[in-house]
Amino acid sequence: MFCGTCGSTDSETISLHYIFSAEPCRGLDEGLCDTCQQLEVLASQISQTAETLRRLVSRHQKLRAKRNHIHSPILNRVPSEIISSIFHHFISGVYVSTEWNSADQDCQIESNGDAHTPFILGAVCRTWRNIALATPQLWRSISISLGPDNFPARVKIAQQWLLRSGDLPLSIHIHSAIDRNEDVNRSGSEIITRCRPLIEIVNHYSKRWDHLHLNIPHFMFSYFCGDAHGAPILRKLCVEPDSYNYSTECQFRLQGERPRPQQIFIKDQRFKVVDIAWDNVTWVEAIGFHVPDCLELLRQAPQLLYCKLLNVSMSRAEFPMPSSPLTHKLHRLDFQTRDYLAGVFFAYVTLPSLTHLNCHLEEAATEYAGLPSFFSRSSCPLRELSIIDAEFDDNDLIQILNTSPSITHLVLAPLSYYESFTPTFLFEFLARTSILPYDDNADLANLLPKLEHLEFHAWQDCRWNHLTDIFGPLDNIQNIRRRPLKSLKFTFVRDPMDVEERRQAGESGYIDREVLHRILELKKAGIQIEVFDNTQRLDVIETSVEFYGIRK
Fold first, then answer.
1. pLDDT at position 399, please?
2. Number of structural domains found in the chain
3. pLDDT, average across residues 218-247
């Protein structure tokens, strides 16, 4: 039978090894005692029966294959190439895990999402099994678990899996299943010794690495060094220690020429730990870099277009800080840090090609984050801007927006405790400039003339008329000089005590009827408006419509 889990074709379901194990008779000085003679006869009968059973099982398998051939005529008319293509779409990103489950002595399969293993296809029938085993595309991706015990079955599965992939590029995910409690007294060298057979298999295929994801202890990275060919076609590299450690002694460094990947993910490691050529990198996500690491990344990766820098911190500089702002053609930047570090970073960069910026500042003021001067210096064609958890200042915000006339999507979310900042000033500004002046040189002509989508997350509500005034007069909705704003998402949080005080004062908390009618008219004209009370988890527009009994 074919195992749909590990791919084994061993049809023996009962272990007969102990039956035929030779054990000398100790009952008599010469010959066999009666009991041993009976066991010998019985073992011979079992052997004959087992052989008969094997022949019967083999015949049964052939008859089942013949029956499937007769009962499924459509399968016989479909070319195997088409079936292989269907199988390939069915698998779509599968990984086989080489973990061993000691409880049921079975191989465990690990998939991505709803993906399926090719072993499942092989378990359907002999025809499908032969096609699956002969389709290299089904075996391009594998996830290998480096567990506490290195069973031969795990190594065998990995070897067979990779052999079936032919000469295709490989996607390999290595992850640790080491029991920290069990291995607390074991050294790294002992763990490496246990895992070495699997490591050697992976290294042997380095010339075919296309996507390599290492989620392992920091001391193991240096052992994944490939072979003498290096990794010439490596496109994606993920370096993700399974525990927090900033050791620079255990580098990821391959034999042969340094790889030139296009996409990099690094977590909780320094920039210098990953020894690659950065000149071909276009996409990076780095978690836990220091500011000097971030700047060195931009310096060494001139082709970088998308960069996500999270949990940026500061310590001693391992790279010299630039003497002047570093100019880079980066298109998209996600930046998340705390306090003053944003100001340090943005003071040293100029990004004239930036189109998307997402800043999660966590308690930093926009002024201290260096954003006004950064925008003024970069003059970038920014289309999407998101500033989250910042201390906003009205003047700084207007300055930023005034230097970025190309913005079409704007998301603003002040700090939770920074309740003094409200959208009033910005909304009134947008209302006054909803119809752009005919004089393009006017002071207000550049304030978001292309804005299409606005999202504001406030820590108190606003005057309801602001929600509609920013769109301009309703009779000017088709005016070609009207700002093309077509959607507003406004969410707010109310203090529960404030909600109760308003209720006792007779204030409903619903949108004014007149403003509500205008909102509904704008929605009929194709404008999208959402107002959500996060405190009470209410859609304020819907609840207001129900409160007034208005028919849409």
1. 85
2. 2
3. 86
Domain check: are 145 and 261 in the same one?
yes
Residue 238 lies in a domain: yes
Name the DSSP class of 238.
E
103-107, 121-125, 284-288, 495-499: which is most confident: 284-288
| Beta carbons of 232 and 207 less than 8 angstroms apart | yes
Q: Residue 398's pLDDT is what?
A: 85
* Radius of gyration from C-alpha coordinates of the chain: 33
Distance separating alpha carbons of residues 45 and 49, to the nearest angstrom: 6
Cβ pair 183, 191 in contact under 8 A: yes
| Residue-range definition of the domain harbouring residue 215 | 140-182+190-268
Examine residue 172 and state whether it is found in any structural domain, yes or no.
Answer: yes
Least confident segment among 76-80, 156-160, 401-405, 477-481: 76-80
Backbone angles phi, psi at 224, to 5 degrees: -90, 80
Q: Are residues 151 and 54 in the same domain?
A: no
For residue 1, pLDDT beyond 50: no
Q: Which residues pair with 487 in a beta bridge?
A: 453, 528
Same domain, yes or no: 75 and 152: no
Residues facing 211 on adjacent strands: 171, 236
- The pLDDT score that the predictor gives to residue 155 is 83
Contact 90, 83 (CB under 8 A): no
**395 Cβ contact partners less than 8 Å away, ≥ 6 residues apart:** none
- In a domain, residue 41? The reply is yes
- Report d(CA 23, CA 5) in Å as an integer: 36
- Are 79 and 162 found together in one domain? no
Specify the pLDDT at position 287: 93
Asked if residue 153 and residue 78 are part of one domain, the reply reads no
Sequence-separated (6 or more) residues with CB below 8 Å from residue 399: 372, 375, 376
Q: Which residue has the higher pLDDT, 428 or 320?
A: 428
pLDDT, average across residues 318-324: 79
Computed over every residue of the chain, the mean pLDDT equals 81
How far is 276 from 232, CA to CA, in rounded Å? 11
**pLDDT surpasses 80 at 93:** no
* 177 lies in the same domain as 243: yes
Closest C-alpha to 3, from 95, 138, 109, 81: 109
Let me know whether 160 and 231 are in one domain: yes
DSSP state of 59: H
Tell me which of 66-75, 82-91, 193-202, 252-261 is least confident. 66-75
- Give me the phi and psi of 126, to 5 degrees please: -65, -40
Q: What is the pTM of this model?
A: 0.79
Rounded alpha-carbon distances, angstroms, from residue 151 to 142, 381, 496, 532: 17, 57, 59, 55
Do the domain assignments include residue 224?
yes
For residue 211, which amino acid is it?
A: H
pLDDT tier at 95, thresholds 50, 70, 90 = very low
Query: Measured between alpha carbons, how far is 419 from 320 in angstroms, rounded to an integer?
Result: 39
Q: Does residue 252 sit in the same domain as residue 165?
A: yes
End of a domain among 235, 268, 301?
268
